[in-house]
Amino acid sequence: MAAPGGGSGRRLGCFVAYATRLYVRRFADTHLRMTMTSTAPDDTRAKRNVAVLVAAQAILGAQMPMIFIVGGLAGQSLASNACLATLPISLIVLGSMLAATPVSAIMQRWGRRAGFLVGATAGAVGGAVGAYGLYLGSFPVFLVGSLLTGIYMSAHGFYRFAAADTASDAFRPKAISYVMAGGLAAAIIGPQIVKLTSQAYVIPFLGTYFAVIAVNVIGSVLFLFLDIPTPDRPSQDAPKGRSRLELLKTPRIAVAIICAMVSYALMNLVMTSTPLAVVGCGFSEGDAADVVTSHVLAMYVPSFFTGHLIARFGAEKMVAIGLAILGGAGVVALQGVEIENFFLALVLLGVGWNFGFIGATSMLAAQHEVHERGRVQGLNDLLVFGGVTLASLASGGLMNCSGGSPVEGWTAVNLAMVPLLTLAGGALLWLVLRPDAADAA
């Protein structure tokens, strides 16, 4: 197998430069339009909060690609059974799922700042415990650190909601987009830190987990500048809305959750195994970091226009396109294990996740009342991240225990996409062909 040449690095550099120019140009154009509109509402506080959250997304968010790059590799070096290599990633997702309700309750009672500080603290502690597990060579200790990191991941998921809290109706979608776009910076910063730190000590990846601690400590200072009021408690006579079972019986809600779960689970299934496959096929950890960088950029760059496409063509069509692109990622991955295949497959995986997950979220958002929001979002996150947990668990088993070589394992991972894509595609087709589909849309 040929070693990766300078071409892939140049292509990644061009991709990063293009994404950065797109982000700067879009931000500048929007800011200019808002400045020239004298009748625009005063969003001074919201803009300050967005600036804080964009910085937090870029700095604190960088630890997620860092951990996803090295977590499976570190797990593979520590676990007695190679099939458990991706268990650390699975426990991060499990921790996020278990922490979602408590973190949300903390924010409801004491405000966003308190919840985000809890998340950053858990991220630092999780990094410290993970580093200690590497130092001891203890897989169980390392897993405890991963579970704690899941608390950070849960809090991180609320950044985009916090951006909307103080924004006007006109500025709210832009505020959310800007915060999501901060993930572009995280996609670049995180993997570069991995390159600098993964072999900084005799114990592999120990330096990366030290860097995770520093990222959380530095990033947590940003939340001192956050200015979001603590929400009022709901009154006793507030409407209760539908039960969780009633919500699940609503066809569009059920299909939206299925499509969101499949989109996120497939993205995680393949991404979790990617560093193992890249390194196992003869490439370096730096190459694995570059592939993950391209993937995370592809997850966030489409956010600049996904909303416009959904508004023009409808959420269902965008979900269908997203599922098709996810299938295309699997097809590309199955064509070979050259570095170009990894890059293209992971870019398609990111774009497919963006269309599928954001489209499903839009479907869900249109099918519930304001007083049902917390219940619907909680139910959605529980099922989606439950599916993601199972996918990340399956990823390591498929990659390391489905054949005698990394190539055979990588093939098994991508073939596993077929039944889940069939489930989501079938559910979406059933919804569209329902007699009342036109009235419900």
TrEMBL record:
Residues 252-441 form the Major facilitator superfamily (MFS) profile domain. It holds the Pfam family MFS_1. It comes from the Bacteria. The chain crosses the membrane at residues 50-73, 85-107, 114-135, 141-163, 175-194, 200-226, 253-271, 291-311, 318-337, 343-366, 378-399, 411-433. InterPro entries: MFS, MFS_dom, MFS_trans_sf. GO terms for molecular function: transmembrane transporter activity. Keywords: Membrane, Transmembrane, Transmembrane helix. This is Predicted arabinose efflux permease, MFS family.
